[in-house]
Structure formats: structure tokens, C-alpha cells
Request: fold
Amino acid sequence: MLDTTREVEVPEGITLSLPVAGAVSRALAFFIDVIIRWSAMAVIIQILAFFGNFGTGLYLLAIFLIEWFYPVLFEIFYHGQTIGKKVMDIMVVNDDGTPIDWSSSIVRNLLRFADFLPFLYLFGLISMLFSRDFKRLGDFAAGTLVVHKLTRLSPLAQNNLSGLAPKMTLTLEEQSAIIGFSERSERMSESRLNELAGHLRPWLNQSKLNQNESASMQLKRMAKWLRGHA
Amino acid sequence: MQLDKLTVKVRPRKSWEAIDLGIALLQQHAAALYKIWFLITLPVYFCVMFLPNEQVVWGIFIFWLLKPLWERPLLHYLSRHLFGEELTVKDCVKSFFGLAKIQWFASLTWRRFSFTRSLDLPIIQLENLSGQQRSQRLQVIHSVGSGSAVWLTMFFMGLEIAFFMGVLTLLYLLVPPQMANEIDIWFWFWFTASANHYWFEVLQNLITYLAISLVAPFYVACGFALYINQRTHLEAWDIELAFKRLAERLKRLSRKQATQLASLFLSISILFMHVPDLMAQAEESTQTVGEFLEENIAEKSPLHSHKKVKETIKKIKQGEDFNQVEKQTYYKLRNKFDDNIPEKESSSNWPVIGHWLGYFISFIVNFALWVVAGVLILFLIIKYRYLITGKSVSVKNKKARPEVLFGMTMAPESLPDSPSEVAAKMLASGDYRQGISLLYRASLIWVIDNTDIIIQEGDTELECLVKMQKISVPKLSQFMQQLTFCWRSLAYAHQIPDPLLMKELCERWPSIFATRDKSKEQSNDPKANVDNLILSEAKK
Reply:
């Protein structure tokens, strides 16, 4: 089964799968950061232009600092996200899924110049397209990953259904399928819902089915029971 | 469509994640896809490339315009492999003309410039929809969100440009510097049609072709993955798969239960054949077990009924542990805007100015007090920092301590408790070399530990002696002179000095280096020891 996750086993023996982020979302995040950085620099240059040569010296310093430390500082103090990454909902973590630290962040950001070669980040882009975890050269050196941030489960839309305990024991995967069925039911047509629910029809409460409660309705009530009050 | 044959994990992803899946998909099939691409496009490229001089640019433009046709076999291959069908590269290339025919005119003209081209291609090619049906279907597919498809196109356009510029830059960097001076950098990056640079233009065309070739399979794969994801959102493919699997499991389970029931029935019937024997054996034990259960669980435990549980909880909640009241008194900052404290009404003529002056003064005093407090704390920290760091501030810790001098270790731990006595014993037993070496070593360590004298690793014995004579303590320097002399004649000349002298040195040693042990514990000031020495000298 092809997937874009990277499996990480934590010391407790649990396997986490991190959804690795690829070139497109990362490039867009980078583009947003570039716009932010450059507009900041433009403002600084305008202000420092009043101070003559001294101002020039200062803004060269400022450009250096912004260009190289904007990503480092954001990654360290803003949960592995720059503003662009925040917009794209991605974040940087270490290879083992732990939050990024100073040395990794500095290495991966200083090595951006290697990715930039020969021009316009060509090496970085090609590396991201052809490596397994979509890493650019800086990521290889620092041992970091860029992952999609996991989104929280949205609270179930309020409905007046009463919960219904499933008769069979369900694995975690099966439970989440039933909950997913209920949550996504509004997007789907009635016929598609019936088609999906039809697969489980023989194992639902037959007497209720005879009383005109549809299979999809029973599954929705089951989902309500499974989610409890969450 | 048989979803259970999917070779890709379907789940409702964010569209960005779906694009990443497309990249993974390409990585999996990279060899086959690039093979298909080059098999189809290389002949075409050669045709358009060898147009007459002036038309070279147009050649690559035509190639670029026809790109949707080249992309179709790639999608064909991907879609078959997604459902586990083995399609060979050869078959895929053969199907090119059949695929190219589908709605070719629209695809090459107005739809050519659509930004969602990659997402829309599967609808005409895989679902075979056209006209009204197609646009309705497009609306449905786009309803999940097509913004990322637009960004996808933008990204790969950018990648093509980056590839073109990047490779040209690389080549420019490889041009020898003598020649590079003559090259106009703008010309280098831009198509300039002139007969003189025909080969250069061919090179630029080749790079453009390679850029398009690099990008196209990715673009198709990402668009396809996006399409799969939109449909997963719309039709809940993952849920269908999960439900099918669940149904399958339940079916197996019920079958298994039926067989289990049958075997249980069988074993019970076998059991009953032996019942009389077993009953006789088991009777005693079952009775006792039953009694035990009744006594312990039913009666002794107070929690056996629901009502009692509730009562117990209530009792515990009303008990002392949950109902203690504690009074706490603490100081709270008085706020000037605090309403609870009524402000005294001033009868003064300048209530406002007085008020602000008061605040101003209090602010100054407040500020000054904080500064004083800060300075005080800083002073205390600096003065007593050895308490925190555990290191003393004295000079002796700052000076580098030689670890080895003339091949002897200078670690204080390596010395016996009273070196002079041990040395005297060694001398008495005729082991002159060991004895004098120990005595000399102990003296040096004392000097390093307890005085300002800095002895470096490379110093010789005589240099040490000179340094020791510099701090004018005659007793020490005289002693060290004699000892150094003894040590040198023993160590280097292999001559045994006067035994009486050596014995005398051992006896004098404690009186000179007596302060050693005490000083180690007490003093932070190395000078003090030398002063002591001078004092004791003076008394004598």
C-alpha cells in the first residue's frame, strides 16, 4: 500500500505515522515567507535610508539577519512553523518526530544555499521530488522532516439521534470507519449512503430494519454511541 | 472499479497531501513513466528540433502546445496500475493514438490553458465524459476544492523555469573565465533568434525539452492523485473498503462460531459419558468453593449493591476529608485604581498637580530602590559566586596546573599522607632514587597548590628553582636548591648524594611544608601561606 507517511516507533513501542509534506506545499510556504521577508526588508531599507552610509551598513546587517535567522527563530519558538508553514499547515520536526532543536534548525537553514544551487533552488527541488521523504539537502544534513500538521477531529454536528450500541466487537479501524461514515454523510448522496451501508446490512438489527429504520440511520446512531459525548 | 484492488492507501487527505501522494506515485513508477514519455516524445522532439534556423523557437512551442497529448499515456498507465492491473510499457505506448483522439481539439485549444488541466484530464480520459455531462462532473469534482490544482500548475511552471535557468547557470559557471567575459548574460538566458547562434538555440531548446520532460510525469501523477482524493472525499472510498472488510470479517466470524458451537456440543456430549465418575470427585470441592464465594463476595464486601455504593460515596463526600476549610492570609499589591479603598478627598488647591507629583516621586524612589536592589544582588552574586559554582575565586585555580613534570605525575592524589616519613623509610632501606623523587615531587605539588608560582609543563628543574627563588622566602628556596641538587645528581648523573644530607632534607621537610594540609581546606588566598612561612621564619 503506497502512502506518504513515515513510520516512527517511539520508545513506548507505539508506532506513529507522520504525514510527510512534499515539494508543492513546501514551495508555497517558502514563497509566502519570501514575500514576508522581502517586504520586511523593503520597509527597513526605506527607514534606514535616512541615515546615509551608517544606515546602509545597518540594513546590510538587517538583511543578513532576516534572511538567515527568520526561519531559525520561527522554527524554534513557533512550534516548527514559519508564517508560511503556518498558512500551509505544515511543520518541521526531527526525523524521529520530536520538536526541532537549535542545531538542526540552524543546519537546515544555513544549508539552504546548497539547495539554491545552481540557481533558483533547483537542487533542492529535485531532491524533494525524488527522495523518499521529500527531503531537501538541508533536511538530509540536519535530519529533519517537514510534516503536515495533524488536524483535530471536528466535533460531531449536533443531531438528535440516540446512540445505539453495536452488537459486534469492532476494531479501532472499523469504529473510525463508522464514525467517518456519519461525519461525511452530508457530503454524499442518499443513494451512495445506502450503497455503503448496504455492505453491513446483514449484521445490523434486523427487527429495526423491518420497522423502516434505514441501515445508514442505524450506522449513524452507532457512530453517535461510539463517539460518546465527544 | 474494484476498490479492494487499490494499490494506494486511500483516506480523505488534505489536497496538499494528495499532491504529495502523486509524487510518491511517480517515484514508485518513475522508470516506466519516463520510459513511456521518452518513447513517445523523443521522435516528435527530433522532428521539431530540426526545423530551419529561424523556426527553432517555434518548434519547441509546438511541442509544448501539444503536451496534453503526450500526457495521456502516462495517466493511462497510472490508472491501470492504481488498481493492480499490470500494463506493460509497450502496450501503453501502443495505446497512444487511441488516447490522443479523445476530445483532442478542445484539449489543445481553449482547455490547453486551463489551470486545472491535470485534475480535469481523468474526467475526459477515464470517465469518458463530454459536453454537458463533463461540465457537471467537473463542478462536482471541483466542489471539494480546486485551488490546490491551480497552485499545482503554478508550481510546476515554476519548476520548469527553475530547471531552465538552473541548467543554464550551471553551464555558464563551467565556461572558462576568458570566454565568459565575452558572453552577455542576458543573451545567455533569453532566446535571441539570430543565425549566428543556431547551436546555442538548439541547446536552449534541448534544455527546455528536458525541463518539460522532468515535470510532465509529476504533473500528471499529482493531478491524478488529486482526482482520486476528490473522489475519495465525495464517495468515501475508504469507508467502502473498511465496511467491506468488516463484513468479510463478520462473515468469517459467524462461520467460525458455527463450527465452534458444533465442537463444543461434541465435547459436552463426550463429557457426559464420564459424568458419574467426575461428579463423585468434584462434589466436595464445589461445595466449599460455593460457600467461600457467598461469604466473601456477597456479604463481606459492602459494595455489592448499587444503592450501597451510592450511600458510601455520599458518606465519604460528607466526611472530614472533603470538607476542610482553611484560612489563608497573604499580602496583595494595592492597586491605585482599586475601588475598595476610598480616596481621601484633598482640600488643597492643587489637588491634581500634587497628586501627579506624588506619583512621580514615588515612581523615582521605586525605580531607584529596584536599581539598588539589583546592584546589591549582582554584587552579592559576584562576591560569593564560588558558593554557587563550587569553585574558589583564588588564583591557584585560575593558573594552569601541569599534569606531568619531568615524567612525574603532579596529581596531589598520588601522594601518601606524610611524604617525608615515607621518603625517610625509603632512604633507610637504601632506595635513594624513589625516596628523593617522592620528596621532590611532594615539594613541587605543594608549591603548585599553595603559592603564586606558575610552573608550566615544559619547565626544567632549574627553571622551577629559579621561579621559586623569585618569591623571596629564603628558607624555601634554600631547601629547594639542596633538594633539586640531590634529585638531579641522582636522576641524571646516577650519583648517590651524601646520605646525611638526604636524611636531613627529609627531617626538615615537614617544618617547611607544614601548612600544606591545613591550607588546602582553609584558605582562598595563596599569599597567606607564604606569609605564614615568612612569619615562622622570622620567629626563629
